[in-house]
Specification:
The chain is α+β, with helices and mostly antiparallel strands. Helices cover about 55% and strands about 15% of the residues. It has a two-stranded antiparallel sheet with strand order 1-2. A two-stranded antiparallel ribbon has the order 3-4. The model is unreliable at about 140-145 (pLDDT under 50).
Length: about 170
């Protein structure tokens, strides 16, 4: 019954599904299926055409949907499939971008950690550390600024003045 590998004639397809050949022609006329044509203009159904026809027959005969409804369902399925492909592509692009940015941030953190370790090592070997209020002069570097807060308790503002090594 097969004409070629994966190709079926209309009579074979009609027999497969238990429908009349004229029903299949109607589905083709409505644009619900599009079988290939031979040089002699004979319809040749591929496996994909048979699957599409099976879906149309299921929707019309089993679900009771008219041909206009079937046409809308098939168009929406194609649109959903296309949109799902676009969403998947966007997810892949976003994933790649996040991985790239993560790598950049990791390198930045590693660089900053290295710089901090270098500063720490340098300061451990420094003879003395001085305390100073932000913006104070060199003479005041060893002074600590003490003042009273509104509730009467004393607070101390201080920072360690390190040499700029960067």
């Amino acid at each position: 019954m097969k004409r070629k590998k994966g190709m079926y004639s209309i009579s074979v397809v009609a027999q497969m599904f238990g429908v009349h050949q004229q029903t299949i022609r109607l589905y083709e006329k409505q644009g619900l299926i599009t079988p290939q044509r031979s040089a002699g203009n004979t319809r040749q159904f591929t496996e994909e055409d048979v699957d599409a026809l099976e879906q149309v027959i299921h929707l019309t005969h089993k679900m009771g949907i008219n041909l206009a409804g079937v046409e809308m369902i098939l168009k929406l399925q194609k649109k959903i499939s296309r949109l799902q492909g676009e969403v998947n592509q966007l997810f892949d692009q976003t994933k790649d971008q996040l991985e790239s940015e993560t790598e950049v941030y990791k390198q930045q953190v590693e660089s900053q950690v290295s710089q901090l370790l270098h500063i720490r090592q340098k300061n451990k070997s420094a003879p003395e550390q001085t305390l100073a209020k932000p913006g104070s002069s060199n003479e005041d570097r060893k002074n600590v600024d003490q003042h009273s807060s509104d509730d009467g308790s004393k607070t101390v503002d201080w920072e360690i003045d390190y040499e700029d090594s960067l």
